[in-house]
Write a structure and sequence with these properties.
heterodimer, A: 279 residues, mainly alpha, 12 helices, globular, B: 273 residues
């Protein structure tokens, strides 16, 4: 068996193990219905209060956000928020959980690629993420009457496919921090806060001060959420957002290279100072 | 007197523990800012016409967006303190394995929660002072000096939330793995109380539920005094609603807590993780 085939088998085993563990905690599944519906719904109602259903307010919002569809804007933003949360917490939490259980050292002693330990468990979150997006789409349609066009959904899947490497690179970068610091929860909270505030997730990027807008345009989630909104809510084609996709791919390559280098350096350091086995 | 000493000792111990986790302390201020106040403010500003949030003006009678959001933040903070710092603290004792020894001390069990309330309120007040300073410095936060007139309503609301804390602590003792429950109910309690938007924007079937919560009245009275928002009802009627709901929730919460505690002692689950 080639090394690649062996790693793929190990990857599948890691995903299967994680899915089996998740299945044992059924109460967590309730969150799949609760948060994707109520969190954005409360924001849409807030938008209704702020706009007062005044045509001038809605027009002002449309000018700043590119769409008059407030519910659609909010739901897509929160889908990005949940995706980001999963990505930021996923790989890091996977390593931290192994560290807390005392099995990280044992996992790193196996001949499998480090990518298995890093991305196997988060990959197991993909089915729940898909369910989350489906629930959000259904809630948007049934509660707020915003039906997403099928061709727009298909185009958004292409955007998602291009976005995956960038987001996983971000996740890997923060996971590397576990090898150096152990507990990275507060740092992840801080970084998620930066993304939430700068990437136009719950409000248009135009509302930010100039310096924050500059920061927003070097972060991949800004392009990803903007492009998903463009194809879903404005009916734009992939050709219209090709420039953004190219930038996302470029940023992904940079982030991935940085994440790999950081992970290697921190892993070497952790092996030297025995951090792998420490709780 | 001894009970008061015990409550203060519990609050002091918790504050000392918290002070060892600098990042957690930072998160307590930063999280409400990035998850609540700033996104809500910038989202609201996106609807502004010529610098004025005309929609909000027609909804509540004032276009003071930052005032509306920061006052909502006060009530959201009080609710979060009740849910996480007071009710959920028993779960943390369970996690650490110290709930049973704590329960065996001669201190009244109510006192343990009251100590947590003192600790929670200290954190709440410190957090609000910082948030208001940020609001005044960066978000054009404006409010009337009449905010002081809302103090009686806030004090009654604190008493009501103590009742809610007893009720929730009883539930936490029984269900044990309460993270998801506390997270969801905290969110719902805040939304239904009108911290994010006026309760008149809630779906019709949920609006009567809002009127059963003391925080709905306290929220409305606070916004009315601080930013001149149009009240839901006559203020005297709102004070009556606040007093009545407080008088109901306080004994009910204590009763549920006592029942849950008795049940745990009978079943021997107090020491179980």
């Amino acid at each position: 068996m080639t090394t690649l085939a062996a790693d793929l088998r190990a990857f599948a085993a890691a995903v299967r193990k994680e899915l089996r563990t998740v299945r044992r905690y059924p109460t967590q599944w309730m969150g799949l219905i609760f948060w994707p519906v109520l969190l954005p719904a409360s924001y849409v109602l807030m938008g209704q209060a702020f706009s007062g259903s005044d045509a001038r307010s809605i027009a002002a919002f449309a000018e700043r956000s590119g769409t008059a569809e407030v519910a659609g804007f909010v739901f897509v933003g929160f889908a990005m928020y949940m995706w980001l949360s999963t990505i930021l917490w996923g790989p890091g939490t996977a390593l931290r959980t192994e560290q807390m259980r005392g099995s990280l050292e044992a996992v790193f002693l196996t001949p499998t690629s480090r990518l298995v330990a890093l991305f196997g468990p988060p990959a197991a979150a993909l089915p729940t993420l898909v369910i989350t997006f489906v629930v959000m789409g259904a809630a948007m349609w049934l509660i707020f009457g915003v039906a997403l066009p099928l061709d727009g959904v298909l185009r958004s899947l292409v955007v998602v496919a291009f976005a995956l490497p960038a987001l996983y690179a971000i996740g890997a970068l923060f996971a590397a921090g576990v090898l150096r610091f152990g507990e990275i929860g507060p740092i992840v909270q801080l970084i998620r806060g930066v993304f939430v505030l700068t990437c136009g997730i719950t409000f248009p990027v135009l509302m930010l001060p100039g310096w924050a807008q500059t920061l927003a345009w070097v972060l991949p989630p800004t392009y990803i959420v903007q492009d998903i909104r463009a194809v879903l809510l404005r009916g734009l084609g992939l050709g219209d957002i090709a420039g953004d996709i190219a930038i996302t791919v470029g940023l992904s390559a940079l982030l991935a290279a940085f994440a790999i280098a950081t992970f290697r350096v921190l892993e070497r350091s952790a092996r030297r100072n025995g951090m792998l086995g420490r709780y | 007197m001894n009970e008061l000493r015990a409550a203060l000792a519990i609050a002091r111990k918790d504050l000392r523990t918290l002070s060892r986790y600098k990042w957690s302390m930072f998160g307590m201020v930063f999280t409400p800012l990035y998850q609540g106040v700033i996104p809500a403010f910038l989202f609201g500003t996106a609807f502004a016409v010529g610098g004025r949030v005309v929609g909000l003006e027609s909804a509540i009678g004032t276009e003071n967006l930052s005032g509306f959001i920061f006052m909502g933040g006060v009530m959201a903070g009080l609710i979060a303190t009740t849910f996480w710092f007071i009710a959920m603290s028993l779960r943390w004792e369970m996690d650490m394995g110290t709930l049973e020894p704590t329960w065996l001390t001669p201190t009244r069990h109510d006192t343990i929660l009251i100590g947590r309330t003192i600790y929670g309120l200290a954190i709440f007040i410190a957090g609000q002072i910082i948030l208001f300073a940020v609001g005044l410095a960066f978000f054009d936060l404006r409010f009337s000096g009449d905010i002081i007139l809302a103090l009686p309503a806030m004090l009654v609301a604190v008493l009501a939330m103590l009742g809610v804390a007893f009720l929730l602590a009883g539930i936490v003792l029984v269900i044990r793995e309460a993270n998801f429950f506390i997270d969801c109910t905290n969110f719902l309690f805040g939304v239904v109380s009108g911290v994010s938007f006026p309760i008149t924007f809630l779906p019709g079937v949920i609006q009567p539920l809002a009127l059963l919560l003391p925080t709905t009245y306290a929220m409305d009275l606070l916004r009315q005094q601080a930013i001149g928002a149009r009240p839901l009802f006559d203020p005297a009627l709102e004070y009556l609603g606040l007093a009545l709901t407080t008088l109901l929730i306080l004994p009910f919460g204590r009763w549920v807590f006592a029942r849950a505690e008795h049940s745990m002692r009978v079943r021997g689950t107090l020491g179980q993780y």
